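Subject: Predicted fold for Pantothenate synthetase, 300 residues

User T.R. writes:
Posting the sequence so we have a shared reference for the thread.
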Amino acid sequence: MMTFTNIRTLREQLKETRFTAATKGKQIKIALVPTMGFLHEGHASLLRKARAENDLVVLSIFVNPIQFGPNEDFERYPRDPEKDLALAEREGVDFVFLPSVEEMYPQPTRTGIKVADLTDVLCGASRPGHFDGVTTVVGKLLHIVQPDRAYFGQKDAQQVAVIAQMVLDLNFDVEIVPCPIVREADGLALSSRNVYLSAEERQAALVLSRSLLAAQAKADTVANVTAGEVLAELRDSIGAEPLAVIDYVEIAEFPGLAPVAGGDRIDVSERRSDVLIAVAVKFGNTRLIDNVILTKKVND
Ligand code: PAF
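User M.O. replies:
I've generated the structure tokens; pasting them so everyone works from the same file.
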């Protein structure tokens, strides 16, 4: 495993690796797994899939300052590069890219990427500018690495939708591979921010997966159930947890993110797109997100 902090050196090594393979008559497939580090089993699942599907796996670890708002947790975001490198080594990563903020954003930086509309709803409504920071950094990483595939977790379902739109609009030659949410045995979706939770808050946070799974079961099994009915139950269930402060509870088309009207039936077999049921809820100072996606079955 090789580590790089410098963009030029990483590019040169990638070029040489592609060239060496080409001289042997092989066109290698390169995967990029972009992360902010403090890696957990969710990231490991992305790395495993990337490893299984490609010849070379590049992991980037960069806590991206421009996707954090002024009162958010950029400074205290958990970091543990040594542990991350050990996990990367175990998962068979080839190249790790660990740039500094100065390397990624030489001053002055005046260019960014903004995806319209999809970034105004859900997390974009509560975190203005967040997705501009995400698309700008992911755009830069895609440009630097030029991977064939890039892997993202579905816990950030809106992020997946926004990045897929950016790739489409700007003709990035890369396949975006969404990967399922990984949960603890008790249902809590894995997140680097889970370390902020006290024992009491962590217990309270289980209400998210419990309520979302109940919503999914209702949508799957109750004939003619409407989005409004599912939403009301979800809001009641999360609202009944004293430590939970709801930021949003929404039902939207996926990946288009247009809200599903309350009176509309939620049954995906009758819709053109999948349906996202997404929540963002604060427990103390920690804002957690979680979701389920109702997908169309092959025969629908
Ligand atoms: O999902 C994340 O960890 C970040 O938003 C990403 C995609 C690495 C961009 O900084």
